[in-house]
Amino acid sequence: MLVSIDKTTLFTFLLWLLLAVLIVWLWLRIWYFRLVFDARSQIYHLEGKTVPGSFPRMLLGNLVDVYRSRNRLSAYHLFHQQFGEIVQIFWMWRQQISVTNYQMIRHILVDNQKNYAKFPPNSLIQRLYGNSVLTNNGDEWKRHRLLLNEVFSKQQVASFHEIFVDYSEQLANKWNGYIKKSGESAEVNIYPQLLALFLDIVAKVAIGQDFEALQGEAHEFLQHLKYIVHQSTRPVHQFTNWWKYLPLPSNRKLEQAFVAIDDFLDRLIRQRAEMFDPDSSNVLDLLLQAKNSLETELQPLTDREVRDNLLAIIINGHETVATSVSISLYLLAQHPEKLARAQAEVDQIMDREQGKLTEAGLSELDYLNSVVIESLRLCPPMAGLQRISSDRDVLEGWSIPALQVVGITLMPLHQNPEYFGEQPEQFHPERYLDDEDEAKNALIDVDNATQSFKQCPFSRFVTPDPKSNSRRTKASVYFPLTFGDGARKCLGEHFAMYEMKVALFVLLYYFDFQVAPNFEAELELGKFGLFLTTFPKGGVEMVISRRVH
């Protein structure tokens, strides 16, 4: 039986509904902007200035400003161009400051690094990485770091040399197959291919077996891992901790993925512990050896901590490296004269070493080393670093409260003409070489080099002796902060640099590279702009052809 509602009752109901909505809207508005003003008042300059930044929109914060930009990564650059070296940004109701002033960065990463802990990730990523060197702080982080330092020492990384070469040769053979099918050349999206290469390499190094990614196999472990990472980028997981508990199909699949990953790694750890090969050099076996060793005073890692660190190494050991090598090849292809110079250096080493890359030969690749560093500077695979303050502090006159999230945004920093001279946006590996003429070509004021070095934040904050007559501009002075600095500098820096140079060496020896017609690479942030890693949007399309030796 239908109940009739007269117009007066309906009007009254709608009026009360509208009033309720208005009250809720007003309450949210008051709550949000009170939160904003409280946050803004906590950060102030000792001279009375307030921290600059675009005023946030209700509930959305500065997300609208970010998504209106051509590229979410470029939004940060625009913020700093508009407001200066310190900017306040609101991610909905979460507030942070972003800095590009090198003295502030030195203070955060080096001088007062104990006051700035690593910012905790969202709950899904925290569960994925667990109790690892990436997520820990304080004494626990120190214990993990000291145990893992030995695993990633220069001597240990050098023992992986043949693995790096072997897998790079496998990729070269695969590309040769493409060229044979196409004729004289082949158009290839090199980014996913390089992702597969470095995934297989890091898996082989970490756990002693690869995922057959180069063969195009979709390993079950990787499928689960990709699903978790994809889910972790969703705003519902970025801004809430309760969404994952809802009885949704996506959450059930998420739980199944976590269980599958845990089962795979737990089973692997048990098997290796039972077999225990003392001569093995993969990360898992080295950690198990350390666990059974009586030579260290440190408490060894538990099986769960071994699992957590293995996963952190696998996840972080392939994507950023693939981005860097892809961009390096893209930039070289855009500058044929630099490509030719890099190939000439590679050919010289190969001729001298009788067709085989050795550790000694790799250490002499000055120009290729400069190419890698320049690519890291121009297109950092990490968009930034995040820290959170433990106590109130002062950054170059700015009073910073406790529990303040501080972001270090790398791209504006790396392209600041104050540190790199005129036209720092240009790809010029020569800026890292010793030769004086090369330094002039790199657009650096060599005559005022000593003063430039004092101002440069990319030296790991080491200033050359002002009495020295050296006019060098090598990488030890102008070095990007892609790997961070201070006590929490990236554990795998040497590992990453080593494998990048090996892969580039092999590929530059066998192939010529041209940018595919009508293609232009664009660096982008991780999905939703909330991950700190970057990647080439749509990949990197190149035309490859065999070189004649």
From TrEMBL:
<keyword id="KW-0408">Iron</keyword>
<dbReference type="GO" id="GO:0020037">
    <property type="term" value="F:heme binding"/>
</dbReference>
<dbReference type="GO" id="GO:0005506">
    <property type="term" value="F:iron ion binding"/>
</dbReference>
<dbReference type="GO" id="GO:0004497">
    <property type="term" value="F:monooxygenase activity"/>
</dbReference>
<dbReference type="InterPro" id="IPR001128">
    <property type="entry name" value="Cyt_P450"/>
</dbReference>
<keyword id="KW-1133">Transmembrane helix</keyword>
<keyword id="KW-0479">Metal-binding</keyword>
<dbReference type="InterPro" id="IPR036396">
    <property type="entry name" value="Cyt_P450_sf"/>
</dbReference>
<feature type="transmembrane region" description="Helical">
    <location>
        <begin position="12"/>
        <end position="32"/>
    </location>
</feature>
<keyword id="KW-0812">Transmembrane</keyword>
<comment type="similarity">
    <text>Belongs to the cytochrome P450 family.</text>
</comment>
<dbReference type="InterPro" id="IPR017972">
    <property type="entry name" value="Cyt_P450_CS"/>
</dbReference>
<dbReference type="InterPro" id="IPR050121">
    <property type="entry name" value="Cytochrome_P450_monoxygenase"/>
</dbReference>
<protein>
    <recommendedName>
        <fullName>Cytochrome P450</fullName>
    </recommendedName>
</protein>
<feature type="binding site" description="axial binding residue">
    <location>
        <position position="490"/>
    </location>
    <ligand>
        <name>heme</name>
    </ligand>
</feature>
<dbReference type="Pfam" id="PF00067">
    <property type="entry name" value="p450"/>
</dbReference>
<dbReference type="InterPro" id="IPR002403">
    <property type="entry name" value="Cyt_P450_E_grp-IV"/>
</dbReference>
<keyword id="KW-0472">Membrane</keyword>
<keyword id="KW-0503">Monooxygenase</keyword>
<keyword id="KW-0560">Oxidoreductase</keyword>
<dbReference type="GO" id="GO:0016705">
    <property type="term" value="F:oxidoreductase activity, acting on paired donors, with incorporation or reduction of molecular oxygen"/>
</dbReference>
<keyword id="KW-0349">Heme</keyword>
